[in-house]
Amino acid sequence: MKKIDKLVLGSFLGPFILTFLVVVFILLTQHMLKYFDDIIGKDLGWGVLGSLLFYFAVCMIPVALPLAILLSSLITFGNLGEHFELTAIKSLGINLVRALAPISAMVLVLTGVAFLANNNLVPKAALEAYSLLYDIKQKKPSLDLKEGAFYGAIPEVNIKVEKKFPDGETLKGVIIYDHRGKSGNKEVIVADSGRMYTILDENYLKLELFNGYNYSQGTASDQQMAGQPANINSFSKTSFKNTYMVFDLSAFTLNRTDKRWFQGNRIMRNLNELHFDMDSLDHEMKRSELSIYDNAGTMLGFVSRTIPLELSPQLLGILKERDSAELATASNPDLQKEVQRDRMSTRFGMSSQERDSVITAYQLKAESLGQGLAKKLDSSFLARPTLTEVSGALSMARTVQMQVSQVLENQKLQSYEYRIFQIQWHKIWANSVSCLIMFLIGAPLGAIIKKGGLGVPVLTSIIFFIIYYVLSILGEKWAKQEALTVPVGVWAANAILLVFGLIFLIQARKDARFFESDFYKVVTERFLRRFQSKAS
Questions:
Q1: Is there a contact between 129 and 29 (Cβ–Cβ < 8 Å)?
Q2: Entry pTM
Q3: How high is the mean pLDDT of the chain?
Q4: Where in the chain are the domains?
Q5: Where are the alpha helices (DSSP H) in 349-386?
Q6: Is residue 380's pLDDT more than 70?
Q7: Which residue of 81, 273, 278, 515 shows the fewest CB atoms closer than 10 Å?
């Protein structure tokens, strides 16, 4: 490796590592703010919080890596241009494309790393992160009694304390409303003082009470009292010197849910799993469409036998697979032929020769039965339908319409889900290739701007990243709505920014000065001279 390559590569690695960490931190902070209310106040511990932050940080890689490459390449070539190092390199006869070669090789390696991360690390991290976040949302806030306020997080119990001492256990002025009997506020305990602590690996809360009273209200049917009517309420008051209560704290612990319940989400699938899901959905949609042809003989008995029903090549393939699998299970060859003949006649309709033979057979049968019976049959078919027959036909038509509408609605939902998985499949590739696109924009643009530091490069990279992000969101939205095909919708942002990158590369090779004030002064002066010469 030449010294120039070491110089350029060394100038890139430092800003890249720094910008990547900063971008991950900013994106992680912005993402975690959405779940701040679900996390705070639940006494999760540093281990759980660290795991959650780590998994979400891995999930930020598809977005953070292209932005870090864009920003670091802008800073690198901006610094080289600002300190005239690019000018020195060009003076040695080395063009800009050759100067980009070491970082281009590095970006190719980063693109491969991005693909491996998007396909392997990110789905697993997303599964761990969102399953853990779900369990955190289900966990109740930590046990924290406030002085002078009722605390109702413990199931079926409300507790109020007058004062809580600094040791966290000693209480003064305790009032407890016990609703475990599901009879309202009929069980009240008042104590002068008490102690509160957890037992059995913090799964239970033990509350010791001193010098108090237990007030209980019940009905006369529960406790007959002498000299009182049978339906009047009874009331009892019991004093105690020392008593205790134990409450279950299982709702305050973090219980992990089986991750298999979350594995079906598209962001938790890699390329092979997404391909398998799309293949399954495609077969399911074709089988759903094929079910209409299977029931044609029942829903449209006359039409299915007189009008051929044509199937697409895809449906024919599904039909042959299913028929071959079912016919293989039949042991009788004659039965196989009969089943196949019956299916072909009901699904595809009869040919013209078959229909003519059936009609001829019916005509011969009618002649054999005699002219009288034939006239009777004709009169039956030519007679006006009765109200019962019309109602029956209308009911059958509505049933057929409902069945077909249900199949079409299911196909619509399955088609939407298929596009969702297809979008995710293309996004894994597109997010990886975007690393190359961002470098192709950042490096030539930095050579044109010739400004290092964090001022102009940060502003420029934010502008192009916003353009990329907006185009990606619009492309995915239009692909979901079928306004665009999925490949066009997902890859449109990369294609558009690739054009910008090629334009910047061409201008950088020509030493364009679009971002220098002297360039616009010279252009303005030339325009004014030409205007004055024409005026004179």
A1: no
A2: 0.64
A3: 75
A4: 3-139+420-527, 150-252, 266-417
A5: 352-369, 371-382
A6: no
A7: 515
